[in-house]
Amino acid sequence: TAPLVIDAGGVSARLATAVGRTKNERRPLGVAVRAYFRSPRADDAWMESHLELWDGPAGASELLPGYGWIWPVGEGLVNVGLGSVSSRAATTRIDYKSVFSTWMRNVPQSWGLTPDNQVGRLASAALPMAFNRKPHYADGLMLLGDAGGMVSPFNGEGIAQALMSGRLAAEAAAQAAARSTASGREQALAQYPRALSAEMGGYYTLGRVFVSLIEHPEVMRLCTRHGLPRKHLMRIVTKLLSDGWERRGGDSIDHFIQLLTRMVPAA
To answer: Which domain of life is it from (predicted)?
Structure first.
């Protein structure tokens, strides 16, 4: 019998599910679709974010669900996608591929995002967020990355979190291997979920509040209309949403976010 098993199998988490470690349906779940396009703006220095998606002329048509991005990746290509998030893992009947096609017909023509310029197929994925599958360690089984629901509810990012969970898991496993007793090894392995909670627990609780607010279109419109013009506020928002704040030290904005994450219970 293996002394330690790691499930890093992605969103399906088949091993964890098989042993009864099911996802928490009350945690946020995101959906993302994306494709690559040839574009004359593939070497732009900045990515473009679309907080509002329209099914026609901006401001004169109906809003589509979700938010979008156009991300130049060089070599003639851009990464184009849209994402949507719900505060609970409820089944949705939204056809995101259809939404994507509608949005593509209404993006700025300067990007050249036509069907003829699409490279490869449109891919989609579920984004398990805010520690929606726990415990992250018990009975010799560790959950890493998407298997442990580690995608950020603030921005849908999961790669950095998966890498961090791998580092923390390796540290705990190395400590366990150095212990001479079974109880000592268990104590070392139990540090893994504690380290995850210390690193992201409070931050993800704030993220759940954020999702519960922005899933209401009227709140999203209010935030974009009155928040975007305020430079200092947007500096705070950018650091918070991008997970670009310092956990220790830093400037006044970092200290403010640190305080917020300590004031709420860990996810």
So the answer is: Bacteria
The H or E element that residue 224 is part of is helix 217-227
What span, in angstroms and rounded, lies between the C-alpha atoms of 241 and 203? 10
In the block, which residue shows the tokens 């949403």? Answer: 241
pLDDT digits (tens, 9 = 90+) for 167-206: 999 999 999 999 999 999 999 999 999 999 999 999 999 9
Cα 158 off chain centre by: 5
Query: What gap in Å lies between CA 110 and CA 40, rounded to an integer?
Result: 8
Predicted confidence at residue 103, as pLDDT, reads 92
Per residue, what are the HEC states of 124-140?
Answer: EEEEEECCCECCCEECC
* Separation in Å, CA 129 to CA 85, 148, 226, 242: 9, 9, 28, 15
Hey, what CATH class is 29-128 in? alpha beta
Report yes or no: 35 and 116 within 8 Å, Cβ to Cβ: no
Which tokens hold the place of 170?
């390796």
Domain residue ranges of the chain, discontinuous segments joined by +: 5-26+131-263, 29-128
Q: What is the pTM of this model?
A: 0.85
